[in-house]
């Protein structure tokens, strides 16, 4: 027989504190029965010999000392099934699309473990997003965790949706799915996401979790774990290759800070909890490929840098854990360029594992290096032009300066629905490189110039 405790001594923000309970487990699921007959859910946050702290998912409004608390004896579990594909769920896993509850094939603990490094396979399969600045210069590899660093007001949500629509492994007929989790978004953004998924047909192969800004902060901490649990189930039980898109990690970290303040913890950098690095790692490290299993989990986590500060604790810690970053530029956005991805501070540490002959194309690395070098020099020359004027530049430098403009206008810029294949991306790269004298193509082997350069291909 389950016991109901009416020993609430304190209610602080989203937390309640109980005394005189029997031993309970950390992260245990709790049901709170209110005097008006309604029930709320919570989770054990801290437990000691004298006091148990419980975080309440639906907020503590209406709770008082007469409320009864029942400990379930189990952690939060997500009902999982292949029927999840095509569904839109709340951040707590409840249907938002008017459909029925999911009939579970299994119920899985959302607090999954990080992947054992010994069991990891080195990622090596190229994932095509259809976005040239990612595919061409900062390639995503199956099993990688690659965050997008953005800023307030930049089109990171549009980029996320475009990736969700277009991502695929070229030449592979293996089942591919997308798990999309949005945290702390407005109702307007939620409608935009839902309409886009339904209109474009991307919903057929997607599972969507939406946590709204007016939902309790505590639920925001559960949402990414729900998404990753669904992704792991589809990947390792149904042999699917799953791309997980989490937006916005900054809202998740704000919820962590809010919970830390409610627990009166000693704050770390800028008020965030000292354990935020460990907490973020527990999410990011659930991506990868496991030896002996066919499926994989790849992660794109999007975070908005407060004040566009890349040294802020959230992007700083994320950069330590993940395998690179894609940086969205406010300067390119102000020029009207979409997607405004700046390739210079962007990095994919696993790019070399997923490109080359048999994966993308033999000239991929050389073209990427040459474009990067030319664009970097061209950006530096813009600063010089502001001081001495364009006329003071040598003919070589003027060519490089023009290349930087071409790179932004033809390689970076593309339509919101434009899905470029890797061949298209590399062709655009060759087209703009052909505007430079061949003598300046110092990072490309002559055999690739003879094979792919437009001037030689036409001969």
Automatic annotation (TrEMBL):
- Stored InterPro entries: ATP-synt_VA_C, ATPase_a/bsu_AS, ATPase_A1-cplx_bsu, ATPase_F1/V1/A1_a/bsu_N, ATPase_F1/V1/A1_a/bsu_nucl-bd, P-loop_NTPase, V-ATPase_su_B/beta
What terms describe the molecular function in GO for this protein?
ATP binding; proton-transporting ATP synthase activity, rotational mechanism
Assigned keywords, A-Z:
ATP synthesis, Cell membrane, Hydrogen ion transport, Ion transport, Membrane, Transport
**Domain ATP synthase A/B type C-terminal intervals:** 354-452
Question: Origin, by domain of life?
Answer: Archaea
Q: Which residues cross the membrane?
A: none
Q: Per the database record, which ranges form the ATPase F1/V1/A1 complex alpha/beta subunit nucleotide-binding domain? A: 130-348
Q: Spell out the subcellular localization from the entry.
A: Cell membrane
Residue intervals of the ATPase F1/V1/A1 complex alpha/beta subunit N-terminal domain: 8-73
One GO CC term on file? proton-transporting two-sector ATPase complex, catalytic domain
Q: Per the UniProt entry, what is one GO biological process?
A: proton motive force-driven plasma membrane ATP synthesis
Membrane topology category: Peripheral membrane protein
Which Pfam families does the entry mention? ATP-synt_ab, ATP-synt_ab_N, ATP-synt_VA_C
Query: How the protein assembles, per its UniProt entry?
Result: Has multiple subunits with at least A(3), B(3), C, D, E, F, H, I and proteolipid K(x).
The family classification in the record reads: Belongs to the ATPase alpha/beta chains family.
Q: HAMAP family from the xrefs?
A: ATP_synth_B_arch
Q: What does this protein do?
A: Component of the A-type ATP synthase that produces ATP from ADP in the presence of a proton gradient across the membrane. The B chain is a regulatory subunit.
Name listed for the protein in its UniProt record: A-type ATP synthase subunit B
Could you read off the lineage of the organism from its UniProt record? Archaea, Methanobacteriati, Methanobacteriota, Stenosarchaea group, Methanomicrobia
């Amino acid at each position: 027989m389950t016991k109901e405790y009416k020993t609430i001594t304190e209610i602080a923000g989203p937390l309640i504190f109980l005394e005189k309970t029997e031993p309970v487990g950390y992260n245990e699921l709790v049901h709170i029965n209110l005097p008006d007959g309604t029930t709320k859910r919570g989770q054990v946050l801290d437990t000691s010999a004298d006091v148990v702290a419980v975080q309440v998912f639906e907020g503590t409004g209406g709770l008082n000392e007469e409320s009864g608390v029942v400990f379930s004896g189990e952690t939060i579990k997500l009902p999982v099934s292949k029927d999840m594909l095509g569904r839109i769920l709340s951040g707590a896993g409840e249907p938002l699309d008017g459909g029925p509850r999911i009939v579970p094939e299994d119920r899985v603990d959302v607090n999954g473990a990080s992947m054992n490094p010994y069991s990891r396979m080195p990622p090596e399969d190229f994932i095509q997003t259809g976005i040239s600045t990612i595919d061409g210069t900062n390639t995503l590899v199956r099993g990688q965790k690659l965050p997008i660093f953005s800023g307030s007001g930049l089109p990171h949500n549009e980029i996320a949706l475009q990736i969700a629509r277009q991502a695929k492994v070229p030449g592979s007929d293996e089942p591919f799915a997308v798990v999309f989790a949005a945290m702390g978004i407005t109702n307007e953004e939620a409608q935009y996401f839902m309409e886009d998924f339904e209109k474009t047909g991307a919903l057929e192969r997607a599972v969507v979790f939406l946590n709204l800004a007016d939902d309790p902060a505590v639920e925001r901490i559960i949402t990414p774990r729900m998404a990753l649990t669904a992704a792991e189930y589809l990947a390792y039980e149904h042999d699917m290759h799953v791309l997980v898109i989490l937006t916005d990690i900054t809202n998740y970290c704000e919820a962590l800070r809010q919970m830390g303040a409610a627990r009166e913890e000693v704050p770390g950098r800028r008020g965030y909890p000292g354990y935020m690095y460990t907490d973020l790692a527990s999410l990011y490290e659930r991506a990868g490929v496991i030896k002996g299993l066919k499926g994989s989990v790849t992660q794109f986590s999007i975070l908005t840098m407060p004040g566009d500060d890349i040294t802020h604790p959230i992007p700083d810690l994320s950069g330590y854990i993940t395998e690179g970053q894609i940086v969205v530029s406010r300067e390119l956005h102000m020029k009207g360029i979409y997607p405004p991805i700046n390739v210079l501070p962007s990095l994919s540490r696993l790019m070399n594992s997923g490109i080359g002959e048999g994966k993308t194309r033999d000239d991929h690395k050389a073209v990427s290096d040459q474009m990067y070098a030319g664009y970097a020099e061209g950006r530096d020359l813009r600063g010089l032009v502001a001081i001495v004027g364009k006329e003071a530049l040598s003919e070589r430098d003027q060519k490089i300066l023009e290349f930087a403009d071409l790179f932004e206008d033809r390689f970076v810029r593309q339509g919101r629905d434009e899905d470029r294949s890797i061949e298209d991306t590399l062709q655009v790269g060759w087209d703009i490189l052909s505007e430079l004298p061949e003598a300046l193509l110092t990072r490309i082997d002559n055999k690739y110039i003879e094979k792919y350069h437009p001037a030689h291909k036409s001969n």
